[in-house]
Amino acid sequence: MEISHETFEADPFKRLRKEPLGKSNSAVWEVARESDGKVYARKEFSETGHRKKEWFGNIKKEISNMAKAKHPHIVKFCGSHYIESSQIIGLLLLPVAEMNLAELFDRLDRKQYNDVEQLEVRRKMCRWPPCLFYAMEYLHRTGLRHKDIKPSNILIKDNRVYLADFGISYNFRNDNTSKTDGPIGAITERYIAPETYDEQPRGRASDVWALGCTVLEICTVASGENSIGDLNNHLKQARYGRKTPFCRSAYFVFDWIFLLLSCPGQDDLCTRPIQKMLQLAFLMLDPNPKTRISARQLVDLLNPLGSNPFDSVGRLACDECKRTTLVPSHDATPHSVFKEEHNGGTYIPLKDGLSSEKENLWEEVKRRWLKSHIPWNIRT
Q1: Which tens digits make up the pLDDT trace of 160-196?
Q2: What 3 state SS string does 194-207 have?
Q3: Which of 51, 110, 183, 328 has the most CB atoms around it within 10 Å of its CB?
Q4: Helix 101-109 to helix 204-222 angle, to the nearest 10 degrees?
Q5: Contact by Cβ (8 Å): 268, 275
Q6: Looking at residues 332-347, what average pLDDT do you find?
Q7: Prior bond of 287 cis (ω within 30°)
Q8: Which of 172, 113, 98 lies closest to 141, judged by CA?
Q9: Domain termination residue (choose one: 78, 94, 110)
Q10: Is residue 171 assigned to a domain?
């Protein structure tokens, strides 16, 4: 750790911008240490009166969780300090991001890049999901879950992505089920899993769902023919409200996957990866957490040491992720095997008879789309 926890009377860091880099439950500023000029992103917490004890407890938990997480696609915790004069606790983080994924979506939607730049950005976006899968699998393997995965919590620096904002992360190392109960708390409704929305016990599978929503958004934008606004308008057909969460519009989520499969874009370098990532997103967005694919099973599907029907996705991971490829688990049976066309192309399931009124929609689509699925093997 570069800097241990310290207490200062005055702030030894200087803010380098007039506006914060981002703000959710706290502001994040780009700062430089005056003694040596080293630059960090500093997440700042201002002390709050009557809830001071709870405030310190939550920050202590965040520091503990962030200090444990050491992965090339997770923000690096470099230390913490308390400033007496302003009563601020600062957490020093690296890298200092250029933007987050939500901001990139917005920039593309506003056409802030020319045609050549847009094409290059979309190709880079297709490389990010496998690295995020590895990062999430690492978190779960080390006893952490994030609990608020979403585009604004995925930072971008030098064309690499980093999971950030562990403000409500939870350590379940001593919890055999990894589940929690109770109110959903301060998380983003759009990306919450069905079990979280219904205030049922939820665990690592909720992280998988949220990342599945994010991967679907990445595929939407990477296709070059659709925007997040187009996806939002499609989900609104569920007539749930102005901001329909993914978990309240199962049919329209599947229908959007179907539409993207049918028209994944005109860039040959993106078409195959997008179609395969849409298959993974389908498994990640299973409404039933008991049959939803796990982070380890996702990584196993990409693993070149075993059966690898998703090689076009696995090859897109960065070199560091490829070097940390895990040995396949003893049960080498893949979570799911999708049907293919006779020429090896991506098979697109039929939509006949499917609607928002269809009961057990996801199970019906599985029967149409999958050759095998672990829960089916268990039942037989």
Answers
A1: 999 998 655 444 444 444 555 444 444 578 999 999 8
A2: HHHHCCCCECHHHH
A3: 328
A4: 20
A5: no
A6: 88
A7: no
A8: 172
A9: 94
A10: yes
Q: Are residues 277 and 298 in the same domain?
A: yes
Alpha helices in the chain (DSSP H): 52-68, 101-109, 115-125, 128-141, 194-197, 204-222, 228-235, 250-262, 268-284, 295-302, 311-314, 319-323, 361-369, 374-379
58 in Cβ contact with 47 (< 8 Å): no
Say which residue the tokens 């992103």 belong to: 41
Average pLDDT, the chain: 86
Expressed as residue numbers, the domain containing 31 is 6-94
| DSSP 8-state secondary structure symbol assigned to residue 85 | T
Is 127 within a domain? yes
| CB proximity list for 149: less than 8 A, separation 6 or greater | 136, 163, 191, 207, 210, 211, 214
Amino acid symbol at 256: W
CA distances from 351 to 247, 256, 257, 262, 278 (A): 20, 12, 11, 12, 16
Q: Are residues 82 and 120 in the same domain?
A: no
The total of other beta-carbon atoms located within 10 Å of residue 15's CB is: 14
What is the domain count for the chain? 2
What was the pLDDT predicted at 48? 62
Percent of the chain with pLDDT over 70: 84
Task: Annotate 168-187 with b (16+ C-beta within 10 A) or e (fewer).
Answer: bbbebeeeeebbbeeebeeb
Cα 171–Cα 176–Cα 181 angle in degrees, nearest 5: 65
Measured CA to CA, the distance from residue 94 to residue 102 in angstroms comes to 19
